[in-house]
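haha ok so turns out i had the wrong file open the whole time. this is the CORRECT one, sorry everyone. sequence first:
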Amino acid sequence: MSDVIEAKNLRPALKTMMTCTYCGFCKSVCPTYEGIGWDPSVARGRIILAYGLLRQDIPLDDSVVEYIYQCTTCKDCERRCPSGIEVVDVVERCRRDIVANGCMLPRHKRLVESVLEHGNPYAEERSVAQALGQKKRKARTGYFVGCTAAYRNQSIALSALSILNKLGEDYTIVDEQCCGSVLQRIGLDEDITLGLMERNVKAIEELEVDEVVFSCAGCYRTFKKEYPKHVDLDFKVRHISEFLASKKMELAPYQKKITYHDPCHLGRHSGVYDSPRQLLSRIPKAEFQEMPRHKETARCCGGGGGVRSAYPELSSAIAAKRVDEASFADVLVTTCPFCVSNLRAGKEGCGGKVDIKDLVEVLDPLIMG
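then structure:
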């Protein structure tokens, strides 16, 4: 495709794009730009491209699509931006216009087809409950597993279930489909993701739960930030780290040096920084040390925004640099199954020695009594 397009979704962001002063402060924090080094691969470059598409000054060619879709939507550029530009909103609006004009990356197209046909991006025909050998029932707490923990990193889901059992919680697994986050990130029309939202909310309401807990930072962020824009939620939403931080647990000693990676969707997008650290601080004998970049300044793992599926080599290269930052530790802990997967891919690429685990994988074998 190399024609000019009608960018309807970008129109409301015109003032935002014109507010950008192109100062370049975003260059210092963009994980994509660090690897590519060209201005179109950083926030100010993407703002220029989006503005050019809106004004029909440039055509939608392959290079434009590539630069727009190399953004991990990590939001670190927004933290650094002196003008307060909502870069992620502009990028995602631009992606919706790209898709609306008939352009979709082949790997993203397969992913979308899988979600619409199977309810998950991995083309799994089993339900989440079937995959984990669980049965749904009415309970006080619902556990929304997320596609990656259900079908690819099952040890995370099984550890979470084990912890809930050890704590004697009245819980049930949600009869879930993809939360819709991945489709929103890559530019699908909101009418499509709305169907997934309505399906999931109905499934949760049938369980009559008071709250839903999430292992996946992306699922949690989508329910917390996106769902309330479109559907009513009659239940509380918490990440599993927030849920467990409110519980009393006696933990066995763990004589390891630990560091923690903040998932972008849990940290910068949702503001959850303390609960994972509170839990890690309660582990006897564990030595906790922050990476130089942590909390608000934490480096992205490179897996978000559809980058992992479309540009796996770029994604792994970004992850490798994050793993290098944790080389002083025995264990790199995070709180998102997708971050775990991508960081492990980065570890393979850089030959790192640090063990990479989700928080629940660390806590489960330590719970006593």
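The radius of gyration is 20 Å.
again sry for the mixup
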